[in-house]
Specification:
Elements: H1 2-8, H2 12-29, H3 31-34, H4 38-53, H5 62-66, H6 75-88, H7 98-104, H8 106-109, H9 116-132, H10 144-158, H11 167-172, H12 177-189, H13 196-199
């Protein structure tokens, strides 16, 4: 999926939403049941996510998707796959993703940080984690708000800022500090295992 997203020049928000569609719909439909249609379903996840987020001229067409394949599909196959997903999600496909919540939590990330270079470092680190998380399937099961707040905690921990779990986040989220320490620790421990070259796959 990431290679296709790079070729199609899709944004990180589109990839996150496509992964959400894939995890829920494809698991529901059963990979064995989909058989050789799994490929078209994966590409349809990217196309539907792009339709939900991108401007019209950035939405890949069926012909763009077929250009990625050795054996192209009938364009009606993409329409059918998309319709199946829309019915499964009951037409509710405008879903907030990790990037959405990182935008919401930007003020919490920068809480009580006045030094320009520190603020710049925090934002760069958050962007790294935003892109790196799509490589870890275990993180896809977390609510996006929880993962975003774990990113905030990981960034502030790495920059040695106190408190690492901002009081302002604690006040608005149902997650306790111990939960967030676990996931922030996971992010920190795997930092660097996703290389710069891996991140180049993602806009």
């Amino acid at each position: 999926m990431l290679d296709a997203a790079k070729t199609l020049q899709l944004s990180i928000e589109v990839i996150q939403l496509a992964v959400y569609f894939y995890d829920r719909f494809v698991d529901h439909a059963n990979r064995l049941f989909l058989g050789d249609r799994l490929e078209v379903q994966i590409l349809s996840c990217l196309q539907l996510a792009a339709k939900s987020i991108e401007w019209d001229h950035h939405i890949p067409r069926g012909s763009d998707l077929n250009a990625l394949l050795n054996r192209p599909y009938e364009l009606s196959e993409y329409v059918r796959a998309e319709r199946q997903m829309l019915l499964f999600f009951q037409w509710n496909v405008c879903v907030p993703v990790l990037s959405t919540f990182l935008g919401y939590f930007r003020e919490n990330l920068l809480e009580n940080v006045n030094h320009a270079w520190t603020r710049k470092g925090l934002l760069a680190m958050a962007e790294y984690f935003e892109k790196a998380t799509v490589h870890y399937r275990v993180l896809q099961s977390l609510p996006c708000s929880q993962l975003a707040s774990a990113v905030v905690m990981a960034c502030r921990t790495l920059m040695d800022l106190q408190p690492s779990w901002p009081v302002s986040l604690h006040a608005i989220l149902p997650y306790d500090e111990r939960q967030q320490m676990h996931w922030a620790g996971f992010l920190i421990s795997y930092r660097g295992s996703v290389t710069f070259e891996d991140l180049l796959l993602i806009n």
